[in-house]
């Protein structure tokens, strides 16, 4: 991305970040290329002075930064730091090398049908992740889509709300953002509240610009453009027929008639991508999204059998703490569950879509349907040797689902996954089918409801075998599980978990060695060398370690990374 030298009035440092050059300017501030204390290149957005004077803006800016941190970084520029209380409030994000979609289209002309479809998929995947974290972008436009190595990355998500929502900047006739890509409800509050559907409208505008080089609504002035958005149909001349219908739905005047981000992504994956014309891509181009998309579909992981809720009541040979290991679950694959697993598999393979999508109204993720254009492995196929990285905030059903049995259950309450078990037993939640092997890392926030409750994390888990971490108030232990047999790999009482307080459990597997930390402090280490346990799933659950009739553990923010 081209930069310009710093100007005489530009700052040379913000906080711990040294500013090197100017990347660009926007409605909220100036973006600098900077360097952090460790020497890494970052992008630093300095907020304009007229916004910094507004205390309401600072408060909202702080809130939006906190929400933006929850968006997985596979399809966005990760938020690294921010200081809303500085004399010049600023935001630090990952520096993404590569041109913007705006620059590519202006320099090379409209995209070929194949590349256009790939960009449409990539941006839809990014919106799935952003909306799943409870964030609305509000300023999606071609200059906020960067075409780096890999899928497109969407930047500047959510932060516009901090400016838009302050009373100083919401006078009639004044809008925050680029009018060309604004949904009707952002221009006229009488249309309805601003929801994630506004980003879907903007997605349509971005894809039309990428495919034609022009905006779908265009007036001589911003007010004229706004009038067209509110009253006229979009200009879709020149767009591939394979995308016209879906883009038309994205441009629905009524927000309720637009597809959700995950629905958009699923339908895009079912579209037969048109062949590229001879002008498809210049030689040596940095971005080859269509080839990448096909490669990711070809290399997608195969799902193992879908589990029914697990009730654990078999005796164990080990006597430690008296809780029992999980048995092999009998596969119970219904058409509905297989369709759900297939949809989740495709989302993960195409864009590592790592969050459970939900509308801001709390509507659960829509289940995928089987599509004949995409070959999905059956539920009995052996798992892949590598799974996609994913992040699940565990606020609602997604990769983890609710379940109930006589011995307990797993449900989403108060924005958390709550696992409950009755008696001295163990209950395992219905979890994702993604299979991991090789080096990986797992982290999750847990809270024990009582001293008798223990949090359970299984990894490389297949049927009745795998590794399990048991984290209790008085002890943390890593074990190898083989049916009813448990072998301790290491345990400690030096990192106890305080009931009623949140703690972060982390497991890092590297070179056949697992290291466990609690709140960043070393807890347990052990060898994970069983040749029959080279791949498997990640699951969560609870065990009762005492005499209380029930035990409960809450989970949030599960982050699983391959490699």
What does this protein look like?
The chain folds into 2 domains: 281 residues, Transferase(Phosphotransferase) domain 1 (Transferase(Phosphotransferase), domain 1, Orthogonal Bundle), CATH 1.10.510; 208 residues, Jelly Rolls (Sandwich). Helix 4 packs antiparallel against helix 7, helix 4 packs antiparallel against helix 10 and helix 11 crosses helix 12. The longest helix has 20 residues. The chain is built from 12 helices and 25 strands. The strands form 4 sheets. Strands 10, 11, 12, 13, 16, 21, 22, 23 and 25 form a 9-stranded antiparallel β-sheet that branches. Strands 9, 14, 15, 17, 18, 19, 20 and 24 form an 8-stranded antiparallel β-sheet that branches. The protein is an alpha+beta fold.
In a nutshell, what does this entry contain?
By secondary structure, the protein is α+β, with helices and mostly antiparallel strands.
Question: According to CATH, what is the topology of the largest domain?
Answer: Transferase(Phosphotransferase), domain 1
| Cα-to-Cα separation, first versus last residue | 28 Å
Main β-sheet description:
9 strands, antiparallel
The shape, in one word, is globular
Question: By helix and strand content, what is the structural category?
Answer: alpha+beta
CATH architecture assignment of the largest domain? Orthogonal Bundle
Q: Please report the number of helical segments.
A: 12
Residues in helix, %: 10-25%
In the residues, how many domains can be counted? 2
Describe this protein with a few key phrases.
alpha+beta, 25 strands, Transferase(Phosphotransferase), domain 1, Jelly Rolls, 2 domains, 563 residues, 23% helix
